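Example 9 (inverse folding). The structure is encoded as follows.
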C-alpha cells in the first residue's frame, strides 16, 4: 500500500483530534435528540393544559391569550433576545457569519433555554405556533456550544456542527431522519459539500436513534393508506399544487413583511414603540379567531390534522384561512414559535375544502396533497415538503403525486414571493447584527 494511503488511514483512525471531534459530534447529537424528545413531550403537556382551559370555558382565551402573549414578548425581549420567531432563519444567518461573537447572538444555550420555555408557554396560552422550527435553533445552539467547549477552532468544522445540529433537530422533532438530511441540504445550506455531509448524516442518525429509543418508531401524523388513482383524481395534484403555491407565496410575503416591520394599518411603528401592548392586541385577535373556528386555530394544529386524516372529526369550513391568519398574527406578535406544523395544518384545511368539491378523489389523499402543496409553497423547498409528509404519514404509495404537487407549488410560490421565506428572514437578522456592530458617528467627527 502506498505511503500516502497508509498515512491517511493512520490519521483517520488514530488522530486524537479527529476522535475528539467525533465524540463531540456524537455526544451533541445524543443531547439534541434527548432535548427534542423532552420538548415534544412538553408540547403535548402544553396542549393538554390549553384544552383543559378551553373545556372550562371557550371564552377564557379572551383574557389568558392577550396577557400570556404580552408576558412572553416582555420576557423574550428582556431575557432572551435572538429567540423570537421560528429559529431557522437564525441558524441560516449564523452559518453565514464569520465572527464568533455575532454568531453567539443567535446561537447559545441561553437562547435555546428561552426558546423551549417561551414556546411551551405560548402553546399553553393559545398561540398558533409549532415546535419544529425552534428545535432546529435549539439543536444548532447545543452543537455550537459543545463545539466551543471542545475548542473546535476551524470555521468549516464549526459550521458543520451547526448544520448538523439543525438537521438533527428536524429529524428528532418529526421522528423523520431522511427529512432532517434533506432539509439541511435544501433549506439551511442550499448546497451539499462533501466535507460536511458526513457530519450531517452522523448527527441525524444519532439524534434519530435517540428519539426512537425514547418514543418508539411512530409516524408523526399516524398511518394513512390513502392512494390516488391514475384518472381524473389527478386533477387534485394540479389544484393543490397551484393553489397551495399561491396561498403559500402570499403567506410568505405576509411573514417577510411583518419581519421587516411592515404591518397593515401602519401598525409597524406602534409595534416598535409598544411591543408588549402590541402583543396583547395580537392575543385578542387570536382569541377571536379561536371563537370563530370553534377553538381549532390554537396551538400546533397537530390534533386537528390527525383527526382529519383519520376521518374522526370535521374541520370548520374556513379552518385553513383562519389558521393561516392565526399563524401570521402569532408570528407578528414577536414570540418564539415555528411555522412547520401549523403550516401543515393550514394545508390540511385547504385539502379538506378541495376534497369536498372533488368527491371522485379519495379525501385522505387530497388532504395530504393539500398539506404538501401549501407547505412547499411556504418554504419553497419541494423535496423537504414531500419527504416530510411521506415520513410523517408512513405512506409511500402517494410518492409521485406528492412530488408533482410539491414541485408545482414551489414553482407557483416563486412567482408570488421570489425570495424563500427563511432566506429573507435570515437576511433581516444579519442586517440587525451588522447595524448593532456599526459604530455611530458623532456630529463633526
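The amino acid assigned to each position is listed next.
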Amino acid at each position: 500500500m502506498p505511503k500516502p494511503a497508509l498515512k491517511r488511514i493512520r490519521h483517520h483512525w488514530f488522530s486524537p483530534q479527529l476522535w475528539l471531534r467525533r465524540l463531540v459530534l456524537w455526544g451533541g447529537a445524543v443531547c439534541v435528540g434527548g432535548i427534542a424528545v423532552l420538548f415534544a413531550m412538553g408540547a403535548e403537556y402544553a396542549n393538554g393544559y390549553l384544552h383543559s382551559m378551553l373545556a372550562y370555558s371557550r371564552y377564557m382565551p379572551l383574557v389568558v391569550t392577550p396577557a400570556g402573549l404580552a408576558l412572553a414578548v416582555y420576557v423574550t425581549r428582556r431575557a432572551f433576545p435572538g429567540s423570537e420567531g421560528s429559529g431557522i432563519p437564525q441558524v441560516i444567518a449564523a452559518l453565514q457569519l464569520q465572527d464568533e461573537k455575532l454568531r453567539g447572538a443567535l446561537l447559545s444555550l441561553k437562547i435555546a433555554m428561552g426558546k423551549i420555555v417561551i414556546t411551551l408557554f405560548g402553546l399553553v396560552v393559545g398561540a398558533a405556533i409549532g415546535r419544529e422550527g425552534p428545535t432546529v435553533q435549539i439543536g444548532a445552539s447545543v452543537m455550537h456550544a459543545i463545539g466551543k467547549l471542545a475548542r473546535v477552532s476551524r470555521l468549516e468544522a464549526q459550521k458543520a456542527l451547526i448544520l448538523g445540529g439543525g438537521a438533527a433537530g428536524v429529524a428528532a422533532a418529526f421522528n423523520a431522519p431522511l427529512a432532517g438530511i434533506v432539509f439541511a441540504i435544501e433549506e439551511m445550506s442550499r448546497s451539499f459539500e462533501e466535507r460536511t455531509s458526513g457530519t450531517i448524516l452522523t448527527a441525524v442518525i444519532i439524534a434519530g436513534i435517540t428519539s426512537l429509543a425514547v418514543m418508539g418508531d411512530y409516524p408523526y401524523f399516524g398511518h394513512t393508506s390513502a392512494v390516488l388513482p391514475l384518472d381524473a383524481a389527478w386533477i387534485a395534484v394540479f389544484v393543490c399544487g397551484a393553489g397551495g403555491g399561491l396561498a403559500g407565496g402570499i403567506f410568505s410575503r405576509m411573514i417577510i413583511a411583518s419581519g421587516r416591520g411592515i404591518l397593515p394599518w401602519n401598525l409597524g411603528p406602534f409595534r416598535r414603540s409598544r411591543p408588549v401592548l402590541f402583543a396583547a392586541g395580537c392575543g385578542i385577535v387570536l382569541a377571536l379567531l379561536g371563537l370563530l373556528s370553534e377553538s381549532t386555530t390554537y396551538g400546533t394544529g397537530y390534533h386537528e390534522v390527525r383527526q382529519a386524516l383519520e376521518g374522526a372529526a370535521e374541520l370548520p369550513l374556513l379552518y385553513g384561512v383562519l389558521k393561516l391568519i392565526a399563524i401570521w398574527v402569532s408570528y407578528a406578535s414577536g414570540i418564539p414559535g415555528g411555522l412547520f406544523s401549523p403550516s401543515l395544518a393550514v394545508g390540511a384545511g385547504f385539502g379538506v375544502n378541495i376534497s369536498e368539491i372533488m368527491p371522485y378523489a379519495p379525501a385522505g389523499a387530497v388532504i395530504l396533497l393539500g398539506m404538501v402543496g401549501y407547505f412547499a409553497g411556504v418554504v419553497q423547498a419541494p423535496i423537504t415538503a414531500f419527504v416530510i409528509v411521506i415520513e410523517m404519514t408512513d405512506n409511500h404509495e402517494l410518492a409521485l403525486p406528492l412530488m408533482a404537487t410539491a414541485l408545482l407549488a414551489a414553482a407557483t410560490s416563486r412567482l408570488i414571493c421570489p425570495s424563500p421565506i427563511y432566506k429573507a428572514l435570515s437576511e433581516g437578522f444579519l442586517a440587525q447584527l451588522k447595524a448593532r456592530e456599526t459604530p455611530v458617528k458623532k456630529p463633526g467627527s
